[in-house]
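Troubleshooting: if your tokenizer reports a length mismatch, compare your output against this known-good record of 384 residues.
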Amino acid sequence: MVPAAIVSVAALPLTPNGKLDRKALPDPDFAAGTALVPPETETQALLCELFQEVTGVAELGVDHDFFELGGHSLSAMRLVANLRRRTGKEIPLRMLFERPSPRRLATFIDDGSLVPSYTPLLPLRRTGKQPPLFCIHPAYGLAICYQTLADQLDADIPVWGLQARGLESGEEPHASIDHMAEAYAEAILSVEPHGPYRLLGWSLGGHIAHAVACALEARGRPVSHLVLLDTPTAVSYSDGLPTEQDIDADVLKHGAEELGFAPGEMPVERDQALEAIMNAAVAEGFLPEGVSLDVMKNMMASFHRAPTLVQRHRLGRCRAPLILFVAGVEPEEDDVEGEFHWDRHTSSTVNTVTIDCPHLQMMYSENVGTIARELTRLLASPAG
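Known-good structure output:
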């Protein structure tokens, strides 16, 4: 891993207390070091313009890397949305990660015969010398929820998200948690062949992370830390396994409450209600600009599959030490009971940390800071 940019300064600016004044540091020139090759096609020119809009870099060429220019997962979604508004063309978000320069992305856009291959990997922070932290998606399938966590962890820790298959049009979702675990383990090995590995998952993502740990260990790869964010070992429902209609009603109800909709303000029709939630979530910064209604519908379909995936999954037993963050605030109305018996599913230790929030607010910024500080400390400690 190497820095995206290096800036030389005569002296480090300090605050009156003698600490580093980060706000006084000069902005890095992310475009330095790559030749300013001008665009040769209309698509290349448009992409250069969109790269500039999103990253704020004044001058760049067709070979500049979006992420080396300071782009990240949230700004990548904005770029894809801006491209859709300008051209009407929809490209999978992952194509920007696979082809991060205007030249390479233009080739995909202009050549309609190219078919994008699925990869769960979503780089949240590429730089750092420590072993990476791999963060596995919760029930709705996106890993972008971990961007704030990545930003607040020790800057020397690279962070990758893993996203579900089935979020893009035409993708068939994985049939089981074990299938996910095998695919995710292979993806992790493709960027980090040797380990040791650090895995994290929130809610459903914790079950998947545990299965990935078992899959990696079965391949002889060591897992040094397995971090679970309020993931119970078993879940029971007082009224039986929820139907798709139950899940829709629950997700929309919680979304409306969290986003401040007044009673009766939400549209009755499901897709209209989902669009209202999406627009409000974008306005509040919970979702990035440019997320489409189709992606929201696919996220809901991912929610629909989650209870069955957990019910059918048989937890194994890993050797990795567990760090379990538990939500300390119970929701007022909840027909779900969770059991936390992770000591039965590892031959190592379980370190439990309670966070003063409900389950659904674990990734809120005010709670992420607490989790990031504690996690940075625990990752720095010897495993086990």
